[in-house]
Design brief:
Layout (H helix, E strand, L loop, with lengths): L4 E2 H11 L5 H12 L5 E3 L2 E4 L1 H10 L4 E3 L2 E3 L7
Parallel strand pairs: 1-2
Antiparallel strand pairs: 2-3, 4-5
Length: about 80
């Protein structure tokens, strides 16, 4: 079994990139950095897929949305 990756690592990747993402673009970048079958955990859940993690972060208001997509400002990191 692969080691679970903390969701903060994805948040940090996004904050460092300063890019705007669509959900598909973020999922693709997560796959490149962490692998297609990576699993994630947060303080609220475990065994999350990339899709699950993206939905979780969106539900917690971590993303800032604009017409170009969404981003993760460094001040949204917890």
């Amino acid at each position: 079994m692969n080691e679970s990756i903390h969701g903060h690592q994805v948040m940090e990747m996004m904050a460092e990139s300063t890019k705007n993402y669509t959900k598909q673009a973020l999922k693709a970048e997560i796959a490149v950095k962490f692998g297609d079958n990576a699993r994630f955990h947060t303080c609220m859940g475990s065994d999350l897929t990339a899709d699950d993690l993206i939905e979780f972060l969106a539900s917690k208001g971590k993303f800032v949305e604009s017409s170009e997509g969404f981003s993760m400002p460094a001040d949204h990191l917890c």
